[in-house]
Write a structure and sequence with these properties.
Elements (H helix, E strand, L loop, with lengths): L20 H8 L3 E5 L2 E4 L1 H20 L3 E2 L5 E3 H7 L1 H5 L5 E3 L5 E4 L4 H9 L10 E10 L14 E11 L2 H21 L4 E5 L10 E7 L5 E6 L5 E3 L15 E16 L1 H5 L3 E3 L5 E3 L1 E8 H11 L1 E2 L2 E2 L10 E5 L5 H16 L4 E4 L5 H11 L3 E5 L7 E6 L5 E5 L3 H8 L1
Parallel strand pairs: 3-7, 19-20, 19-21
Antiparallel strand pairs: 1-2, 4-6, 5-6, 7-8, 8-16, 9-10, 10-13, 11-12, 11-13, 13-16, 14-15, 17-18, 21-22, 22-23
The structure holds one RNA strand.
Length: 413
Amino acid sequence: MKFSQILIPTTKETPNDASLPSHIYLIRAGFIQGYSSGLYNMLPLGKIVLDKVRAIVKEELDNAGAMEVSLGFVTPSSFWKDSGRIDKYGKELLKFEDRHGAEFVLSATNEESMVNLVKGSIKSYKNLPINLYQINLKFRDEIRPRFGLMRGREFLMKDAYSFHVDSDDMIREFNLMEATYSKIFTRLGLDFRIVEADSGAIGGSGSKEFMILADSGEDTIKVCSSCNYGANVEVETGEVCPKCGDALNETKGIEAGHIFQLGTQYSDALDAKFLDNNGKAQPFVMGTYGIGVSRLLAGIIEQNHDDKGCIWTKESAPFSVNIIISNIKKEEEVAEATKLYNELKAKGIDVLLDDRKDRFGAKIKDFELIGIPTAVIFGKKLSDGLVEVVERRTLEKSEVSVDNLLNEVLKRV
RNA sequence: CGGAGUGUAGCGCAGUCUGGUAGCGCACCUGGUUUGGGACCAGGGGGUCGAAGGUUCGAGUCCUUUCACUCCGACCA
């Protein structure tokens, strides 16, 4: 895409109400725009990144055999009364009435809706197991929303729910989801730990959290210095690793995923049963699995930024290559840059062409702020047949011959 | 909900103490000159100073009430 045609309102000034790097840079680089406490608009760049992350989540879940659905954002309060959660979840639920006085809530999570969906469509063990998920808006009226996308009130969440004939099969799926989440976080280029956790308001027994390691994390976790063991401090109070006996270190993490072994808590409460192979009614044994998709964006930047701006990882970047035309009035620069732009597009590579009338300084600053992994600069040395290639993460520059340029760029994406 | 702060142009801020014609920087528009690290010159547009009420000849400024937003805490995927 061409920079001149996308809305990317970058700013030099740090917004007065942002303190975390992810919050500051996502706003300054024109990814998001806040408009009320805990509420954000996704601008074009933010939407592109969100869709990329979402696509990775979807791809891995589909590969694991889960199926995507989309449940309504508005749910009757009766769903929550039936499960007994209307009081337990309390004020985080945004409640309202329709014109007839019927009570509704905005979905904060969808165990009830999903159990009702399955209850109405699955009657036999022959249709089990099944894992249904959705990636859509949630609303939680947080006591104190903060840190931009990190803890918004409205946010994009992937929530999956699995249904099984027994606990063994549910645990098999739980382990599969753990492996699937690991693939997702790894593809996104994140440094993360899987930790033992409390189950919180969701309930259930076994539960693990996926923590993105970052100083600004809201959770304190203990991680083993040699193996991959990790646990939430509320769960783990010891000083040595129960797995291998080495020292445990305290660190901060951002909770971006959480998987639960639910059991029959919701199927019992909502009277959701199937017929087993003896024709006997049994409650579904359930698991539930969540990823904070919009929170992942904040997490990626918390873990990947410098004092100049964002540094997107390969699979999360809005574009793979940022082509900079140093001086838009130099016909040769425009021609050569446009040529590379078209060649890369033809290869299916996401590329941003900075064709604005601004000077070089503004363009390179925006490149550093936005954080696309690689920049290609068509400038002064083009008359000698040379262009400059810059790696965003290291800011390392190298000169490349125009003749060899396409291959050189392709090597990097 | 306790504690602390902030609301003045799209963004960042000064002006409020000590009441007297609404300011600065960035951004934006027009013209010109520039073009490798956020250019320069000239001209220009944009505000019910968060809201309501009060005091006063006169309120951005003083008083009262209220709303919003941010930070710390408790709480929470």
